[in-house]
User: Fold this.
Amino acid sequence: GYPRFVSPWRSKLDKVVLNRDLAGLQLEPMGSHHLQQLADLHQSINPSPWSVDQWKTCCDTPNYRNWVAVHPRSGLLVGFSCFLCLGPDVELLNIGVAQKFQGRGVGEDLLKACLLMMPESAERCFLEVRRSNIPAINLYQKLQFEQVGERKDYYRLVNGLIEDALIFRKDLKS
Assistant:
């Protein structure tokens, strides 16, 4: 099931406690004070990481919904998500979990919680994922995302490789 929340209101939720046995990680809105730690985390887990400036753009743009999962005692970022919300369509632009916490349900809880907090106008969520990112693809399929297309040679990785993106969609109103 979905994690329990401090408030039942999707669009007004400020803080969420993820209910895994992970020392009560807290989900909170991404802020400028998270940017450097966020860029460092993203660089450690992604073959084509975003810069601090790219993350800052996400924080400064009104149509974005950005969240970080924070360890309450240390204040360290454990995960993050970035969504672009435009009318009935939402696009998951980026999501990730620190290597140490991968495979423990944090990504699943993070994605479920974020989808519940989308604007009431949101009807569909789209995302793109590297063809080789099998753990992410498995998670998206587990959460009833359906593959609806692909983009050839979409990802340009820092090591010079090029990879296809698979496009997934989930109906948020069902």
Remarks:
- The radius of gyration is 15 Å.
- The beta strands are 16-17, 26-29, 64-70, 77-86, 89-97, 124-130, 146-156, 162-171.
- Residues 1-15 have pLDDT under 50 and may be disordered.
